[in-house]
# Entry
Amino acid sequence: MATDPDRAARRPVRRAATAAVALALVAPLAACGSGGDGGTPTINLYYPPEQNLQKVVDDCNAQAQGRYRISYRVLPRQADEQRVQMVRRLAAQDSGMDVLGLDVTWTQEFASAEWIREWTGQDKSEAEQGTLEGPLDTARYEGKLYAAPKNTNVQLLWYRADLVSQPPKTWDEMISAAQQLKQQGKPYQVLTMGAQYEGLVVLFNTLAESAGGKILSDDGKKAVMDAGTVRALEQLKTFATAGVTSPSFSNATEDPVRLEFQSGGGAFQVNWPFVYPAMQEANPELAKDVKWARVPGIEPNTPSKVTIGGINLAVSTYSKHPTESFEAARCIRDAEHQKFSAVNDGVPPTIESVYDDPEMTDAYPMKETILAELKEPAVRPLTPAYQSISTVMSAILSPPSGIDPEQTADELRGAIADALESKGVLP
# Structure
């Protein structure tokens, strides 16, 4: 995407080209209807798999009292497949999609393409009321709100309290502790995601933000890669070559990391909160010795900033029932339903007051640490070109052991600049 010409002038060309490609690829695709004339409107909710979300939908349908009916259309499990399905259908102006569950990194792209509607008036007020600022940042584009954060997510440091008495405050402290454990013949590995995919970008973004670095300019139009990002590259290189990672680090993704840690193969793990209930079930004896803490920072006495994830709810531009769709989205992500989803599906809320609810204590014994990170979060670069930027970043950062900090920063700066101008990157 170009960084300087007027964005509005580019939209018709981009949208027409995207639509042409989409129609060529999926010409036979039929839209699911949103309700016939005069009947009860059907609000099609396209959302990733969430085990108990149907119960939330059922409750919202009851509250609607027949004015509309939400139908939960389950997207594929893999994020890339979710995005491809929605992009193709929206580019074809498919009116069978109403409420969309978007990864937090997609909101800007979809808003730029004019595929989703702005939240205004009472809808906007309710979406913003009590919502944590980090998740809200991911839902805005050019100062306007285009989605309502439903749930968020943030990684924690999981550590073996039977091996270390206190959690490390910095990555260097963690590396040193792991090396000492290794010398003692004890479990020592620091397990986290280093494969060439979004998980590696998340790790680097956390390190960069923790070092005070900037990947993009504040307006999202220029590649920066300043001294803070170089410091983050130095830290990532040190970690990858210190002899404390798993041999599979450069191919590791979330679930294999979880399995390796809960089998006793590591002393530390940086991963999402889903590992906690899984460990309670799979290895309850080890779980008794596992504690959690804020992800380590770069410099002593400077808390880390940890990259947030999550899902935002947006309303399609092509929905035939926008009023009902906004109402349905507000219901699905209200405080009571966020608490239900947090307790039953393990997805952290975006509404801060939910964390104070007594029912959260058992489901989220680590809730205070999660909330502390969420109040000072790292947000991934906010740009419609994020998908392309993520692709080039993961390629250049892989494998982390091959990083040359200054040279890699220069390479990233150039590749990100090209991605911002849509040069050399497939959508």
Q: What stands out?
A: The first helix runs from residue 7 to 26.
